[in-house]
Specification:
This protein has 171 residues and is mostly helical. It has helices spanning 2-6, 9-25, 30-42, 50-61, 65-81, 86-94, 99-107, 111-119, 125-136, 145-150, 153-170.
Length: 171
Amino acid sequence: RFSVLLGNVADGAAMFKQLEKFALRTSFTIESASEAATMLLAKGVQQADVIGTMQLLGDLAMGDAERLGLLAKAYTDVQAKGRLMAQEQNQFAENGINLFELLNKTTGKNAAELMAMREAGQITFDMVQTALKAATSQGGKFFGALKQGNATFSGQFNSLIEGVQTLGRML
């Protein structure tokens, strides 16, 4: 499927290899990582940005594969529209991400100001992306959450299973 999305077999194979490495170092399986990456690519995230975006979303999801898919959808919906709408804000909130709290830290605007901006279509994708990057960078609320999720028993077990499956694909 990556060959189709990226236009050629070599790029598709390279993307799959990057996703295998991502899955090996996280609590995600290759299947959950591939599903999220497919959504990102299909909705316009550039190939060079996929793994970085997966890391960002993985931190926000705190290593939960189901949340990764839901957050990838919310993220790409905001990207496609170019601005934050109530529906996408709710999608983030349903998955534990208070965008107004994060946007407050990067814009200095309070919730009432942010609500008015959202209703006027003034909260752009770039503003949302900046807030999410700040939240997942050092000092941010979600910094290292994916790594912490991988340190749990289930995260380590998933990494072990993924390692065995990767070895099987290589043979």
